[in-house]
Amino acid sequence: MRTALLQSSGRPGSLAGNLKVLDDAAGRAAAAGAGLLAAPEMFLTGYAIGDAIAHLAEPADGDSADAVAEIATRHGLAIAYGYPERAGDQVFNSAQLISAAGDRLANYRKTHLFGRFERDHFTPGEQPVVQAELAGLRVGLMICYDVEFPENVRAHALTGTDLLLVPTAQMHPFQFVAESVVPVRAFENQLYVAYVNRVGQEGEFDFVGLSTLAGPDGVARTRAGRGEELVLADVDPVLLAASREANPYLQDRRPGLYGSLV
User: Fold this and answer.
1) What is the pTM of this model?
2) Has 144 been annotated as catalytic?
3) pLDDT digit string, tens, across residues 52-71
4) Catalytic (active site) residue 202
5) CA distance 257 to 262
């Protein structure tokens, strides 16, 4: 499945502006043969927008989800995107996957909040593994800081995730996560990881770009630079199966030795 990563901070504070950016990217991705477009963390509203987060937050099935579904069906590809989710009095930092038919396949709430900014504006999610079936692949969702916890990604590997989508707001000086940690996570768990970042200055944050899709061999299939960019790479189930046979980490585990970790 050809996968497109939209590296962009969009138009912070403007739902309409960000939906337009997403629509344009979906058209370009579909023209390049992509079956999936992934956008960054908090893409629909912007990340560093302070109290506007709560004002712009919507339910998972709200108007913006309907707008994304319309974009997905019109261009004929699935879309994963980050947004602030309103659920009663709580706001979650969430990511949602919508199919090319416009169906809501999966919704994930970030479980590990990073820094005071996120803890001031969001409630942490409680479900570590969220998955959906897409084009013969089991696709999982997590968000940014979540991927830096080995246990999180291993939980996905143990439940059969083939492609892990990670909408991200990765900032300076932590670019080594994109450069080094993400390919290692893909290799040690024998899955693909699509890490799609924001870019440029936004409030107090300097987002570093470097979006990547890393394969189960630890090799980056594509890597963006530091600017606005749409990059594409293929997720190959044949290579995935061969890599898992050659690198049997999951079969060679000895869980009885690891009890002290939890």
Assistant:
1) 0.97
2) yes
3) 999 999 999 999 999 999 99
4) no
5) 11
